[in-house]
């Protein structure tokens, strides 16, 4: 009977360990553990493969100390104040990010992670970029370039068809390569025309904020999750790989069933 009780106790402990969130051991060297999760924004609400519930579960499995979010600091301050006061996020820019308003902010009431805003977008940058692209599309002298851009878009669409909401694919080198081919072509054609909204320029501005946030917790053995639009993921990851003060973990493992 005692042996049976011991076996049952061991089984219960094993089940509990499997269902519990990831532990938070500090690395021996104090390296911060970093993962980047590519979000698909409004598509999360329509996808079964990469639903908001799946995203929520992946974040819980990683069990972060810090989540870096794709909001500018001033927008984040408004969103956080409204969430604290009303229990929901009331901020126009944040409406485009259900991964934040429906997952990260609600999770922050249950868990102890810190949110850090690391986006460089401003409304002016977005408006100027939109106006510049509309002008480029209508300029007959740039018609050949626009056609080349559309061909790159078509090639990307073909590469991700049927898999654009598959988290396993999104967190793969194949997805990153498809996005990179499309966006580097876009940058080569139009980067100089888009100013602060150009692909390289805005990503560099985003990463400057990410790097500063990483620098502020250097050597603390933190678990850090960067939650960003999936297209930005390859660019950010390439910069992260240059650092020697972090340990990068592929987020794909947190979406395994």
Radius of gyration: 21 Å
Number of strands: 5
**What's the domain count?**
1
Strand order of the largest sheet: 3-2-4-1-5
| Gross morphology | globular
Written as H for each helix and E for each strand, in order along the chain, the element string is HEHEHHEHHHHHEHE
Number of alpha- plus pi-helical segments: 10
Strand content: 5-15%
Fraction in helix: 40-55%
Question: What attributes characterize this protein structure?
Answer:
257 residues; alpha/beta; 5 strands; globular; disordered N terminus
Lay out the secondary structure.
Elements: H1 2-19, E1 32-39, H2 52-62, E2 66-69, H3 73-86, H4 98-107, E3 114-117, H5 123-138, H6 143-160, H7 167-170, H8 173-194, H9 199-216, E4 223-229, H10 233-240, E5 246-248
Parallel strand pairs: 1-4, 1-5, 2-3, 2-4
Helix pairs in contact: 2-4, 6-8
Summarize the structure in words:
This protein has 257 residues and is of the alpha/beta class. It has one domain (30-257). Helices cover 54% and strands 10% of the residues. The chain has helices at 2-19, 52-62, 73-86, 98-107, 123-138, 143-160, 167-170, 173-194, 199-216, 233-240; strands at 32-39, 66-69, 114-117, 223-229, 246-248. It has a five-stranded parallel beta sheet with strand order 3-2-4-1-5, sandwiched between helices. Helix 6 (143-160) runs antiparallel to helix 8 (173-194). The protein is globular, with a radius of gyration of 21 Å.
């Amino acid at each position: 009977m005692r042996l049976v009780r011991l076996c049952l106790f061991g089984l219960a402990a094993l089940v509990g360990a499997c269902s519990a969130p990831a532990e938070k051991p500090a690395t021996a060297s104090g390296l911060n553990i970093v993962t980047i999760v590519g979000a698909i924004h409004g598509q999360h609400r329509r996808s079964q493969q990469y639903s908001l519930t799946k995203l929520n579960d992946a974040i819980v499995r990683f069990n972060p100390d810090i989540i870096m979010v794709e909001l500018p600091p001033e927008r984040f301050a408004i969103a956080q104040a409204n969430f604290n006061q009303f229990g929901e996020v009331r901020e126009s820019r944040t409406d485009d990010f259900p991964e934040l308003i429906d997952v990260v902010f609600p999770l922050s009431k249950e868990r102890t992670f810190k949110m850090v805003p690391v986006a460089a977008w401003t409304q002016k940058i977005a408006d100027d970029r939109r106006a510049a692209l509309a002008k480029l599309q209508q300029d007959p002298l740039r018609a050949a370039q626009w056609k080349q851009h559309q061909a790159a878009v078509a090639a990307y669409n073909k590469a991700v068809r049927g898999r654009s909401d598959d988290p396993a694919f999104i967190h793969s080198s194949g997805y990153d390569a498809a996005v990179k081919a499309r966006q580097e072509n876009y940058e080569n054609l139009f980067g100089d025309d888009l100013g602060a909204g150009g692909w390289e320029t805005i990503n560099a501005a985003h990463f400057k904020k990410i790097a500063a946030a990483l620098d502020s917790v250097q050597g603390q053995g933190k678990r850090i999750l960067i939650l960003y639009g999936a297209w930005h993921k390859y660019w950010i990851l390439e910069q992260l790989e240059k650092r020697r003060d972090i340990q990068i973990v592929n987020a794909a493992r947190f979406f395994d069933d």
